[in-house]
């Protein structure tokens, strides 16, 4: 199982995503935005960061990168694609996911350990969770406010395509507390919080058991491995 | 070289945190007459040659599909250098 992690100019969390893939038991493959080659990977991750300095709109210029042609084709063929933070913004700009992301309603960058409720546990990236389960992973963004018109929001909710919702605190003004969504097929998932930062004891969020012991993010990556192996 | 100006604004029904922050600062510095600010983007695009209908059509496409994101923003005006206000044309797409 090989999972590609695409590095764009200004990506920050590409190495962390590679590490998460490795800890979950798959082989990470570093891919480059300027290439047209997905190198035969089985799944793709668009990592967090500030590609192109967030110029124009967050993720907008990256969504026009050479490799995005192949990413869109692969996503439409059913390859699992996960967009984290800036990667979520790219998927929205590439129209692989609906809605858009705007500056946090309170105007400030926010960084916190965030509780989420898993609303859809049947996507390629959430299959190892229970529906309704609450997890804690880090969140860090300046432009994480998820918005869409009411009709789109109603459709996303009606189709069960809200993948994650913020619990306790809505950190950025996202409509209907939406933290992440999926496409209809369940292979493309985007979310603002960062599962790749909660994959190894000693480096994750605090839990009731011990400081920094949270590894709730690991199951995003084990989910896609299980799904891919089951389909093989 | 002709310059074409494209103005993009956040959709009116959406919260504009940048504009809100600017309005707050103006009020704090004593400009109490200001009741609201919305902040958008202005693009100045230079092209070679005359701004004919083909150029206009391509610029309208660029404005709608790349310079703005229709989920969160509107192209409110395109000035092709002859003071043409294109708000009515850009809403056709």
Write out key terms for the chains shown:
heterodimer, A: 232 residues, alpha/beta, Rossmann fold, nine-stranded mixed sheet, two-stranded antiparallel sheet, 5 helices, 11 strands, 23% helix, globular, B: 93 residues, alpha+beta, three-stranded antiparallel sheet, 33% helix
Q: Would you give an account of this structure?
A:
The complex is a heterodimer of chains A (232) and B (93). Chain A has 232 residues and is of the alpha/beta class. Chain A has a single domain (2-231), classed as Class I glutamine amidotransferase (GATase) domain (Rossmann fold, 3-Layer(aba) Sandwich), CATH 3.40.50.880. Chain A has 5 helices and 11 strands. In chain A, the strands form 2 sheets. Chain A has a 9-stranded mixed beta sheet with strand order 2-1-3-4-11-10-9-6-7, with helices on both faces. A two-stranded antiparallel sheet of chain A has the order 5-8. In chain A, α1 (14-24) crosses α5 (218-231). Chain A is globular. Chain A starts with a strand and ends with a helix. The model of chain A has no long low-confidence stretch (mean pLDDT 97). Chain B has 93 residues and is an alpha+beta fold. Chain B has a domain at 3-13 and 40-90. Chain B contains 3 helices and 3 strands; from the N terminus they run βαβαβα. Chain B has helices spanning 17-28, 53-67, 87-90, and strands at residues 3-10, 41-46, 73-79. A 3-stranded antiparallel beta sheet of chain B has the order 2-1-3, with helices on one face. The longest helix of chain B has 15 residues, at 53-67. At the A-B interface, loops of A face α1 of B.
């Amino acid at each position: 199982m090989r999972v590609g992690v695409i590095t764009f100019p200004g990506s920050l969390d590409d190495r962390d995503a590679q590490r998460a893939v490795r800890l979950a038991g798959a082989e990470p493959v570093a891919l480059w935005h300027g290439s047209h080659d997905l190198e035969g990977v089985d799944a793709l991750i668009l990592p967090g960061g500030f590609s192109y300095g967030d110029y124009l709109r967050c993720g907008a210029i990256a969504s026009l990168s050479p490799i995005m042609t192949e990413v869109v084709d692969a996503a439409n063929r059913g390859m699992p694609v996960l967009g984290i933070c800036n990667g979520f913004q790219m998927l929205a700009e590439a129209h692989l996911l609906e809605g858009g992301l705007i500056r946090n309603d309170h105007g400030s960058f926010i960084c916190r350990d965030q509780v989420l409720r898993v609303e859809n546990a049947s996507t390629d990236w959430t299959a190892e969770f229970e529906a309704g389960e609450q997890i804690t992973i880090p969140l860090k963004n300046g432009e994480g406010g998820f918005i869409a018109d009411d009709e789109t929001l109603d459709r996303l909710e009606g189709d069960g395509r809200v993948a994650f919702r913020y619990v306790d605190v809505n950190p950025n003004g996202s409509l209907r507390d939406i933290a992440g969504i999926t496409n209809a097929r369940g292979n493309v998932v985007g979310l603002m919080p960062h599962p790749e930062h909660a994959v190894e004891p000693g480096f994750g969020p605090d839990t009731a058991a011990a400081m920094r012991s949270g590894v709730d993010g690991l199951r995003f990556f084990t989910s896609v491995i299980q799904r891919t192996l089951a389909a093989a | 070289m002709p310059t074409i100006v494209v103005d993009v604004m956040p959709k009116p029904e959406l919260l504009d945190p940048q504009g809100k922050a600017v309005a707050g600062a103006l009020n704090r510095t004593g400009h109490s007459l200001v009741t609201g600010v919305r902040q958008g983007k202005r693009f100045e695009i230079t092209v070679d040659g005359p701004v004919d209908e083909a150029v206009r059509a391509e610029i309208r496409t660029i404005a709608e599909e790349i310079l703005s994101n229709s989920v969160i923003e509107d192209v409110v005006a395109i000035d092709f250098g002859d003071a043409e206000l294109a708000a009515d044309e850009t809403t056709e797409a």
